[in-house]
Design goal:
The protein has about 400 residues and is of the alpha/beta class. It is built from 16 helices and 16 strands. The protein has an eight-stranded mixed β-sheet with strand order 4-3-2-1-5-8-9-10. Strands 12-13-11-16 form a four-stranded antiparallel β-sheet. Strand 1, helix 4 and strand 2 form a beta-alpha-beta unit.
């Protein structure tokens, strides 16, 4: 790597990022959007680097390609659309799901395809792909701030590319041998000390620059799924789809203890106190308790009913599209898991629906956002505020079609 970009011994990932960002700006190589700091940097020559993907067999063979939404990868998105491949782009910061599939209008001109490859096109011509969308990704293209010839990659530091890959593993969308490509300027190819890499870090198999195609032959294994003990409550709140994946993996018997849960369990004085607190706030997970300790009464609303009947603010949430195979106990378990325990649950399995009463609108809205994307028995549930709110938590059943 250029002498000014060779990280000194003991340099951190952030040191490497700052060096690359500074160099791109100082040398006039940075391109819109600028400054490139804190981004996957766009650079002069990115389109040329992207075009060389067409010469790779792995691109030729791929039918479904996942490409990050970063500006320097626009040329790869365009190449995928022009080659009539299925193009998946992660949703920004994974707020609403994992992927959007870019669907150009039929008979799209070159110009329309060009728009589809941009951030504007990703907004206008995409449809969300749910967890049950059966995505089978043949090729992954990620942006990088720095990468080594050995295939070790440093992103912009927020961990989204690593998390996207881990989620794809969890969904079964990628296999251990699914190739990963990154597109960078030549000056972003630098020496990276192996000790900087964690077991959650994604490595790459090909590096494309404006002048070179580097096959890394990287032997380091890629992440084998989500490393739950590195996931925080905060991340779970930011990325709703993570909750659904966590619930799935828990059902499959995997250990899904979160980073902050260990200290929570240590601090919890008694399950009863925890239970009361959770009932009151609906905010902290109740993973510490088995269903026996939760008790079944919250759904029958016995001790809570005086408070319920006297309150004018109860807000009801409608849950629809519940498959006939799902039992009320499974829904209760999911509600506990997603920290959305209601004051009262009205189960109507024969009509494939349920109604959940919460103490106020804010709590109900928080439950709706937590449960978005939840899948039970193979169906993604429909979760929304019930349309006809009545004062005492009663709901006009007929209003839900």
């Amino acid at each position: 790597c250029p002498p000014q970009l060779c990280p000194p011994p003991g340099a951190s990932k952030q040191d490497v990022r700052e060096k690359v960002w500074d160099h791109l700006e100082a040398s006039g190589l940075a391109d819109f959007p600028r400054p490139v700091h804190r981004r996957i940097p766009n650079f002069k020559g990115s389109h040329q680097a992207c075009c060389s993907i067409k010469e790779l067999d792995v691109f030729d063979r791929a039918r479904e390609i996942k490409v990050d939404p970063d500006k320097p990868l626009e040329g790869v998105r365009l190449a995928a659309l022009q080659a009539r491949k299925t193009l998946l782009v992660p949703t920004p910061r994974l707020r609403t799901g994992l992927f959007n599939k870019i669907v150009p209008p039929s008979g799209a001109t070159k110009e329309i395809l060009r728009i589809c490859a941009t951030s504007q096109g990703i907004k206008e011509y995409s449809v969300p792909v749910g967890l049950d969308g059966k995505a089978r990704v043949d090729l992954v293209v990620v942006g990088s701030v720095a990468v080594s010839e050995k295939g070790w990659r440093i992103g912009k530091g927020e961990g989204y590319a690593d998390m996207e890959y881990a989620m794809m593993v969890s969904m079964g969308a990628v296999q251990a041998d699914t190739p990963v490509i990154t597109i960078v300027h030549d000056c972003q190819v630098v020496d990276i000390a192996e000790e900087l890499l964690g077991d959650h870090d994604l490595t790459v198999d090909y590096i494309l620059t404006p002048t070179r195609t580097i096959k890394t032959n990287c032997k380091r294994p890629k992440p084998q799924g989500i490393i739950w003990h590195k996931v925080s409550y905060e991340m779970l709140e930011k990325i709703p789809i993570l909750k659904s994946l966590r619930y799935r993996e828990k059902q499959a018997g995997k250990d899904v203890t979160l980073q902050d849960e260990r200290s929570d369990l240590a601090n919890a004085s008694t399950p009863a106190a925890l239970n009361e607190k959770a009932m009151a706030e609906n905010t902290r997970p109740q993973a510490a308790m088995g269903s026996a300790q939760i008790g079944q009464h919250y759904v029958e609303s016995d001790s809570l009913s005086p408070r319920l009947e006297g309150s004018g603010t109860i807000t009801t949430v409608y849950v629809g599209n519940i498959p006939p195979s799902v039992r009320v106990s499974e829904l209760k378990c999911a509600l506990r898991e997603f920290r959305a325990t209601p004051l009262r649950l009205n189960w109507q399995g024969a009509q494939h629906r349920a109604f959940l009463d919460y103490k106020d609108k804010a709590t109900a809205e928080s439950a709706v956002s937590s449960l978005k994307g939840l899948s039970l028995g193979g169906n993604t549930l429909r979760v929304e505020l019930a349309k006809n709110q009545r004062n005492k938590g009663q709901v006009e059943i007929n209003s839900q079609k």
